[in-house]
Amino acid sequence: MDNKLKISGIVLFLTILFVSGVHAENGYELWLRYNPLENQSVANDYKKSLKEVVVFGNSETSEAIKKELSIGLKGLLSVEYKVGSNAEVDNCLVVGTPKNSPFIAQLSINEKLQKLGDEGYLIYTIDKGAKQRIVIASQTEIGALYGTFHFLRLLQTQQNISDLKIEESPKTTHRLLNHWDNLDRTVERGYAGFSIWDWHKLPDFIDTRYVDYARANASVGINGAVVNNVNANALILTDQYLHKLLALAKVFRPYGVKVYLTARFSAPIEIGGLSTADPLDANVINWWNEKAKEIYSIIPDFGGFLVKANSEGQPGPQQYGRNHADGANMLAKAVAPFGGVVMWRAFVYDNNVPDDRAKQAYNEFQPLDGKFPENVFVQVKNGAIDFQPREPFHPLFGAMPKTPLMMEFQITQEYLGCATHLVYLAPLYEECLDADTYVKGEGSTVAKVVDGSLNSHKYSGMAGVSNIGNDINWCGHPFAQANWYAYGRLAWNPENSSEQIADEWIRQTFTNNQKFIDVVKPMMMNSRETAVNYMTPLGLHHQMAWNHHWGPGPWVNIGRLDWTSPYYSKADSFGIGFDRSSKGSNAVSQYSTSVKDKFDKLESCPEEFLLWFHHVPWDYKLKNGQTLWNGMVDKYYGGAESVKKMQNDWESIKGLIDNERFYHVSQLLNIQANEAIWWRNACLLYFQQFSKQPIPANYEQPNKALDYYQNLKFRFVPGISN
Ligand code: GCV
Fold first, then answer.
1. Is 650 in the pocket of ligand 1 (CB under 6 A)?
2. 17, 43, 106, 444 - which has most CB atoms within 10 Å?
3. What is the DSSP letter of 123?
4. 591 and 722 in contact (C-beta within 8 Å)?
5. Centre of ligand 1 from the C-alpha of residue 573, in Å
6. 63 counts as catalytic
């Protein structure tokens, strides 16, 4: 559709909405909308099976279960349930634990529940037929809450509930959101408004959003939140802020979400009055021990510390000639008596520019394997550079068997179009989790490293850098909510399928209408590849604009060498790509032999990682017979074309969902389509200086010259301090 026409349609719609005061959906409810079920016969079947709802227990968590079921069932089935406590009635739903319910205790499921663990649950249909009952049971009330959300998901997605035999337990112990939220409410790399934590009004003012945040997390099994930025301010560790944190902890607790803090390594100096933060200094050790005692006396279920040390200017043990294990272990000892953990980030890079930044984390951390106590995680980003649209899996995942490695994914779209591009990230997460490290033979996937099963660790986990802000719809882009949702579902089970997750998210967030799903699911599933194609195809990386990272910047040449784009593209008259093969930086040697061999040879290196591992001549023949230059042109054009297709696909479902979200997405797709062309033209014109080859005449030629793109300057891009 012509852009002008589209925009006037949108303006007309918004005017009608404003003038008539019609309530439209704003996305606040996320995937917990509980709108009336569209299929009446399914709804009627549910009503027959759900004559009564019985929830055992009086704790805050049991109250949360009752509340969720009341809201959910009222919304979905238009029935007001008075939650009862007599399970001896036919056709009822019973939720509880063997401890809070004699009825559940006598069901002979105790052994099964024990196997499922504290957070696991089962959902069984028992006494089938006319007397049918559905039981949601767990050893703990938090498990029962997870089961309740699972059950509500079944209804929201219109599944058959007549013969349920579901047994679920999380594959990981720690499933966390990492908020890069500052105390002044700005959010580093945040594109959805300001921080949802209103520190100024805490602890006395409790925003109802905190409850909804906890509900949303619990609904996908997220059980922890690091509430402050990894570029930390030590003030968060002072008594004043700890009491604010306590207020949040109280809201989150019934939903099984623990609070964690990023600890600034130099806090003993900044707020403790010491002259050093040396982790081997007795006064420093004592300071952290006392700080841990203080925190746990205020928040007994405090989760622990996340630390970014000796990276991008953050303080750390290396300032005192100590290593990362010295730092992590000191903190780990302080929190161990209280059951806390330390998540020590492997995202480090030296003050001196190395031969290849991609090798640094491995070089520093691999030798420390076996030097950490069991309550230390090393938290590793999915790839060795920095959350690029595509990176091969981080070599550390195959190299530290004695250490629990926590996966760090980025949910916020720092390098993927901020909150204006529709990019469903679950395929990116899945690609990394499914990657095979081969360290213990075929099938040694990253997922099995992360869930602890490959190396038998007590703790296992995932961290997702949050995309949440105080925008009414939480994440900025209506589809960015899917990334929060999918992250949670994959943290629960790293082997879940991205497609299945997309399916259930669409049904809950938008509609069960099959036509809508048939259009929107493929659109989501292809969206990440689309972004890779118009930003950095064939293994290119780090080609974005300086500092704010929004838009293309293959020419960026400011600051230290490994912050510049040409350092990564290595574009020259011969070709393009970073030679990390055994003839180059030899980063390939950080992988196990079979992975190394595959990446090392040009012929066996997967083309999606070609320019990540090799410096390839412009006329190199790709598998499809195209030269590298022509293949690159084709990818960039294909990516921009795919966004146009997304626009058309989206137009085709008009009328199947509410107008408010329809037009919201439609406007953002318009921005994305323009920005995809911007990326395409800017990158191709820049690389063309080296390839000296034309963009084949059958492609629409860029209508601006390279210097136009190079001279574009943007101020106040969200997500950084300007
Ligand atoms: C929080 C990248 C981002 C930084 C971020 C850093 C990190 O460099 O651009 O904003 O800092 O990663 O993960 O620590």
1. no
2. 444
3. E
4. no
5. 32
6. no
- Cβ(230) – ligand 1 distance below 6 Å: yes
Query: Which residues pair with residue 79 across a beta bridge?
Result: none
pLDDT in tens, 692-721: 999 999 999 999 999 999 999 999 999 997
**Euclidean distance between CA atoms 674 and 644, whole angstroms:** 9
Q: Average pLDDT of the chain?
A: 95
Give the whole-number percent of the chain exceeding pLDDT 70. 97
In the predicted model, what is the mean pLDDT of residues 218-233? 98
Torsion of Cα atoms, 2 then 644 then 640 then 384, to 10°: 130
674 lines ligand 1 (CB under 6 A): no
For residue 631, pLDDT beyond 60: yes
The active-site residue out of 119, 141, 356, 414 is 414
Rounded Cα gap, residues 176 and 179, in angstroms: 9
**3-state SS class at 701:** coil
pLDDT in tens, 252-288: 999 999 999 999 999 999 999 999 999 999 999 999 9
Examine the residue annotation and report whether 312 is marked as an active-site residue of this protein: yes
Bond before 203 cis per omega within 30 degrees: yes
Ligand 1 atom closest to the CA of 308, numbered from 1 = 14
Percentage of residues in the chain having pLDDT higher than 90: 93
Query: Which residue is listed with tokens 């089961």?
Result: 147
Instruction: Express each pLDDT in 640-670 by its tens digit.
Output: 999 999 999 999 999 999 999 999 999 999 9
Q: Are 46 and 35 in contact (CB under 8 A)?
A: no
Give dist(CA 722, CA 716) in Å, integer. Answer: 6
- Does ligand 1 have an atom closer than 6 angstroms to the CB of 687? no
Burial of 546 (0-12, 13-18, 19+ CB in 10 A): middle
Determine whether the shortest distance from the Cβ of 542 to ligand 1 is under 6 A.
no
Give the three-class secondary structure for 704: coil
Ramachandran sector of residue 577 (left: φ over 0; alpha: ψ -120 to 50; beta: rest): left
Ligand 1 centre and the CA of 188: distance in Å? Answer: 8
283/290 Cα distance (integer angstroms):
10
Radius of gyration of the CA atoms of the chain, in A = 26
Helices 481-492 and 426-434: angle between axes, nearest 10 degrees: 30
Mean predicted confidence (pLDDT) in 149-168 = 97
Separation of alpha carbons 134 and 163, rounded Å: 9
Q: Is the pLDDT of residue 16 over 60?
A: no
Span from the CA of 165 to the centroid of ligand 1 (angstroms)? 44
Among 90, 312, 495, 700, the one annotated catalytic: 312
Would you say residue 20 has pLDDT above 50? no
Checking if the pLDDT of 308 tops 50, the result is: yes
| Ligand 1 nearest atom to the CA of residue 720, by list position | 10
Q: Catalytic site residue 414?
A: yes
